[in-house]
């Protein structure tokens, strides 16, 4: 009727917010809600004896209602599904959850406590493959080996040795043996290279290698390549009368020169003597005359000379 407004379409009110008819949404706690509006009832007419003159006919309308129910997740067909992400309700097979660690689709990894085992994430399933180890013993027991095997022991001359054991042969300390992979390997002890002559090498009791003897104590001094030897304590002159040498107790030679301190105006040099002699005589025209000796003068044959030591 004129002057009146048309009624609004029915809708749902949920927690203070309007929802359109047919709207669906998810509430916290994985609850799915929907707004449903019922069909309006048939119009009610006025009695015939009372016609509605000048009045509008009112049609009652019913408001919408909200229906909520728990979200129904489809059954996942994988062994290691990923939990629902933030804001989601259902797990996903687009990845794997293994030992608390999320793995992407196609990811290849090794578990932390499974040595040499390789795993792969495919369609939410984790498949692991372990190496095949041969039965029996193995050459070595290394932590990096994939197979858990025990190294073989060695049997040698009636005795059993653990893997890696080192031992010596009975009565032969110069040979060292080792147990490796069930077999015994023996080798001689290495000896150092000696720098002494063959006649000075010596093999002592209980020793595996030769050693050099101590050189014998010297009995004298060798002064040249001809084998001339002076006894210890011997003093001699090597050719210079002013130099004297002595043979030391350790076989070495010690030499020392003589310093001449006596001077005179007419020194006499005696062959084989280091220092000139001022008391032996006189030197005249290249000749040596002794004290109180007379001789003719070379310049004047009528003159006679005498050597006087002062």
Automatic annotation (TrEMBL):
It is found in: Secreted. GO terms for cellular component: cytoplasm; extracellular region. One of its GO terms (biological process) is cellular response to virus. It holds the Pfam family VWC. PROSITE patterns: VWFC_1, VWFC_2. Keywords: Glycoprotein, Secreted, Signal. The keyword Glycoprotein applies. InterPro entries: vWF_C/EGF_Fibrillin (IPR052080), VWF_dom (IPR001007). Residues 10-94, 94-155, 152-213, 219-279 form the VWFC domain. Its main location: secreted. This is von Willebrand factor C and EGF domain-containing protein.
């Amino acid at each position: 009727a004129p002057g009146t407004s048309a009624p609004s379409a029915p809708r749902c009110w949920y927690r203070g917010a309007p929802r359109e008819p047919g709207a669906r949404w998810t509430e916290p706690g994985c609850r799915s809600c929907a707004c449903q509006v019922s069909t309006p009832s048939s119009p009610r007419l006025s009695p015939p004896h009372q016609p509605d003159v000048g009045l509008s006919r009112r049609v009652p309308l019913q408001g919408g209602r909200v229906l909520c129910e728990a979200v129904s997740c489809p059954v996942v067909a994988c062994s290691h599904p990923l939990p629902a992400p933030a804001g989601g309700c259902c797990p996903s097979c687009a990845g794997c959850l293994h030992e608390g660690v999320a793995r992407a689709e196609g990811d290849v990894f090794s578990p932390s406590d499974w040595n040499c085992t390789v795993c792969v994430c495919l369609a939410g399933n984790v498949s692991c493959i372990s190496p095949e180890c041969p039965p029996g013993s193995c050459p070595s027991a290394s932590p990096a080996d994939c197979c858990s095997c025990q190294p073989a022991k060695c049997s040698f001359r009636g005795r059993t040795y653990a893997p890696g054991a080192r031992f010596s042969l009975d009565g032969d300390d110069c040979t060292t043996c080792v147990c490796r992979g069930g077999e015994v390997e023996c080798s001689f002890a290495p000896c150092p290279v000696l720098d002494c002559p063959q006649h000075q090498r010596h093999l002592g009791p209980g020793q595996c290698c030769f050693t050099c003897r101590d050189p014998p104590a010297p009995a004298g001094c060798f002064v040249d390549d001809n084998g001339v030897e002076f006894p210890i304590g011997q003093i001699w002159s090597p050719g210079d009368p002013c130099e004297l040498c002595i043979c030391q107790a350790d076989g070495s030679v010690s030499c020392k020169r003589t310093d001449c301190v006596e001077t005179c105006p007419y020194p006499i040099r005696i062959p084989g003597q280091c220092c000139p002699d001022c008391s032996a005589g006189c030197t005249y025209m290249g000749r040596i005359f002794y004290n109180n000796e007379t001789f003719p003068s070379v310049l004047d044959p009528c003159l006679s000379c005498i050597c006087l030591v002062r």
